Amino acid sequence: MHPNPTNARALEGKIALVTGATAFIGRAIAIELARRGAHVVVNGRNAVAGQAVVEEIAAQGGKASFEAADLGQSEAVRAMVGRVAQQHGRIDVLVASGAGASADSPSFRLFKEMSDQDFDSYIRAHWLTRAYVIQACAQVMAGQKHGKIVAIGTDAGRVATVGESFIGGATAGMMQMCRVLARELGRDGIRVNAVAMSYIWDAEPRWGKGSQALEAGAHGKGMLDNLRKRMLFPVYCQDIANAAAFFAGPESDAITGQTLSVNGGLSTPG
């Protein structure tokens, strides 16, 4: 696993909202931002899991609180962002993560086997969950004339992958949205970037079953094993957290509208 960067307090005093932060990648991001000095608002649907992350951060000397909201429900997301802004007076950093590999998200599926409901589910999980919270936080950040937004997605949005037509299509739309928002919101001092990933060695996929032709075992195990074999280097949750923290911190002040792939050499998108 890669070591943490040495700039340990680069986010001192910042208010950071991390969505989907109750487990795996989101949890690692929340802990890393807290290590760097931010007060982290941990978002998720499971209050018990969320409070456990808050307590873990506190045990390491950091500051955190929990806010519940279902990322797929726009009104719940807006209400949650409103509560955070009211309580803390501002939101300096948003890391939009979560939902893409949750238990109610579909797995790898061939296009010919998808239903209309599958189309809606992929778009909601991989795009709208980001759009809802980015829009709500951008309104807060525009009023304060500064902010950092980091969207977490998959490299399927950059590289054509069989079985990920709508995972990739929805994520590509989300990433293009972020590039446009980097231009739109830059006038208000807001930077918008994305981190893309592929197989994560210490994150457990929780989604439902996909197409039998792609699975060769339960829950897409065959396809996941193939991805891992093609990687040159392993990638862990902490690696994604380090990339997100870089975009959240002052080191990236001159960067906006970019997507950074952290994929262990699986692919080299331009």
Summarize the structure.
The chain is of the alpha/beta class.
Strand order of the largest sheet: 3-2-1-4-5-6-7
Number of helices, where a helix is a run of at least 4 consecutive DSSP H or I residues: 8
In percent, how much strand structure appears in the residues?
5-15%
Radius of gyration: 17 Å
Q: What would the CATH topology be?
A: Rossmann fold
Distance between the termini: 25 Å
User: Largest sheet at a glance?
Assistant: 7 strands, parallel
How many structural units, i.e. domains?
1
Which shape, going by the Cα principal axes? globular
CATH architecture level-2 label: 3-Layer(aba) Sandwich
Mean pLDDT figure? 92
Number of strands: 7
| SSE run | EHEHEHEHEHEHHHE
Indicate the low-confidence ranges by residue numbers.
1-5
Corresponding CATH superfamily? NAD(P)-binding Rossmann-like Domain
Fill in the keyword field for this structure.
270 residues; alpha/beta; Rossmann fold; seven-stranded parallel β-sheet
Task: Note the topology.
Blueprint: E1 15-18, H1 24-35, E2 39-44, H2 47-59, E3 63-68, H3 74-88, E4 93-96, H4 116-144, E5 147-154, H5 165-186, E6 190-197, H6 212-215, H7 221-230, H8 237-248, E7 259-262
Parallel strand pairs: 1-2, 1-4, 2-3, 4-5, 5-6, 6-7
Helix pairs in contact: 1-8, 3-4, 4-5
